[in-house]
Amino acid sequence: MSFATAIMFVCPQAAGVRAAPAPAQVATAVDTAFRPLLAKYDVPGIAVAVTVDGRDYFFAYGVAAKATGAPVTKDTLFEIGSVSKIFTATLACYAQALGTLSLDDHASKYMPQLRGSAIDAASLLNLGTFTAGGLPLQFPDSVRGEASMVTYFKQWKPSAAPGTQRKYSNPSIGLLGHVTALAMRGKFSDLIESKVFPALGLRHSYIHVPAAAMDTYAWGYDKAGKAIRVHPGMFDAEAYGVKSSAADMIRLVEANVRPETLAPAIRRAVEGTQVGYFKSGELVQGLGWEQYPYPVTRERLLAGNADTMAYDAHPATRLVPERAPSAPTLFNKTGSTNGFAAYVVFVPQKRIGLVMLANRNFPIAARVNAAYAVLDGLAAATP
Hints:
The protein is an alpha+beta fold. The protein has two domains: 6-88 and 188-381, DD-peptidase/beta-lactamase superfamily (Beta-lactamase, 3-Layer(aba) Sandwich), CATH 3.40.710.10; 89-183, Methane Monooxygenase Hydroxylase, Chain G, domain 1. Helices cover 34% and strands 19% of the residues. It is built from twelve helices and 16 strands. It has helices spanning 23-40, 84-97, 124-128, 146-155, 170-183, 188-199, 236-239, 246-257, 264-273, 298-304, 307-311, 364-381, and strands at 6-10, 45-52, 55-62, 78-79, 165-166, 220-221, 227-228, 243-244, 276-280, 283-285, 290-293, 314-315, 317-323, 329-336, 341-347, 352-358. The strands form four sheets. The chain has a ten-stranded antiparallel sheet with strand order 1-3-2-16-15-14-11-10-9-13, sandwiched between helices. Helix 2 (84-97) packs across helix 6 (188-199) and helix 2 crosses helix 9 (264-273). Mean pLDDT is 95; it is low at 1-5 and 12-17.
């Protein structure tokens, strides 16, 4: 690859915070961990953002589009795939903070046509934590609109009782987002773009990229090197449809590291996504975020992000009491589309976090290893 330069942008340090690691120290850590991935996995471009004690660092490698050679910047739009689920969870918690719904509700309260069906035995919390009873990773190809979606859920047969099994599922969290929008009497994508993004300070994030922002939207590349972007699908907006930049995604991380800086309702929403509800395998499942008691070993983090956690069903145990956001915790979420890869990870108690966005889908283990190497070094340097 001919273009693989790194550009670092450092935002000024906020007043009153202790000294952060030297920019050169952060740059060396990121460059060592992430630059080799471009050649190893034939990734055209990567954007990395790091936050340490309120100071942001941005790194840009490679190109956003091979055809034009346009360089990646901190404002380049990438498809973030399943990291989009964080925004769905945040909207649901926001609706609960406003008193519009309760996570203890069931779908039929807002979709009466589902009353008496097996899916209605699951609560909205079950839908958001993938513990409804065995919903699949994807809808069947036959589900293409709301009518067929309703028919699918009415006919669905569970493989486990609600709350006893975790099976990662787009239909599961998609239904949570759909019901939340019904409860809020709005369209899901409009609510995310008009309520959640502005409340979190995100100024360059979209479900539907407007014409004025299309020149910042990177092209993704599939296994054959063909330029592609995500296709619409049932619950795409709710499950994998957000496009965002490194600059905006690190703001999301900072909102999660310091939710006390947010307005009351969105603060309660963010804190709600940080509650751990179910233990399953190596991870604790919250609403969107996957969690690990901190400190966590690299091996445990890799196991929690293994393909088996996305594709297979695993026993789930309800945590009593729930894992409070104040407990030392590493939060993370991966995301992928056919042409893009994303990873977000942060530790609030250490006030550190990292975002990686790329325009090729490459192995999750490689993303986790690179991010772990950077954060491990920063954690050691941060009191």
